[in-house]
From TrEMBL:
Any one GO CC term of the record: cytosol
UniProt-annotated location(s): Cytoplasm
Full protein name: ACY2 Aspartoacylase
Single annotated GO MF: metal ion binding
Principal location listed in the UniProt entry: cytoplasm
Gene3D superfamilies: Zn peptidases
Protein source organism: Sapayoa aenigma
Entry keyword set: Cytoplasm, Hydrolase, Metal-binding, Zinc
Gene coding for it: Aspa_1
Length: 176
């Protein structure tokens, strides 16, 4: 069973929203010098999710990238007038997915900023994902005595269409 749960490929995303600069700066740093995030037996890929929005320092160009990883958007034909973020979601799904498949990246850690007074908060989408829960526990213990709240955004009838949902184990991090 341990081999089934092995994490071999990790994506670290910044810039899902182009005006959230902490993740952008970290991803750019790690793209230039990734030694500090590399580990033997694990491929860690820092990735700028929405480069056009980052370039304009705006949340998005046509629509919120963090809302278009649903089956309809991912399966949409690529035509001239397709929204930029839908096309980008398809590219991300091709690189890190396909979503829901055995070939998908094991983990995507998506870095965000917020203006809410919530400190450093982890965002969990599935309370039944043992691996992600153990990782959250590890992160919380590593940061102690600093607080690290966990926000569970699980709903029984909703299928999340977030950028990180392409991975087998999605996790978000919000920092104000």
């Amino acid at each position: 069973r341990a081999a089934e749960c092995a994490v071999r490929r990790v994506g670290v995303f910044g810039g899902t929203h182009g005006n959230e600069l902490s993740g952008v700066l970290l991803v750019r740093h790690w793209q230039e010098n990734g030694a500090e995030i590399q580990r033997p037996g694990v491929e860690v890929k820092p990735f700028l999710a929405n480069p056009r929005a980052v370039e304009k320092c705006t949340r998005y160009i046509d629509c919120d990238l963090n809302r278009v990883f649903d089956p309809d958007s991912l399966g949409r034909p690529v035509v001239e007038d397709i929204p930029y973020e839908v096309r980008r979601a398809q590219e991300i799904n091709h690189i890190f997915g396909p979503k829901g498949s055995d070939d998908a990246y094991d983990l995507i850690f998506d870095l965000h900023n917020t203006t809410s007074n919530m400190g450093g908060t982890l965002i969990l989408e599935n309370s039944r994902d043992d691996f992600t829960i153990q990782m959250v526990h590890y992160i919380k213990n590593s940061l102690a005595p600093e607080l690290c709240p966990v926000l569970l955004i699980e709903h029984p009838s909703l299928k999340y269409a977030t950028t990180r949902s392409v991975a087998k184990h999605p996790l978000g991090k919000y920092q104000n």
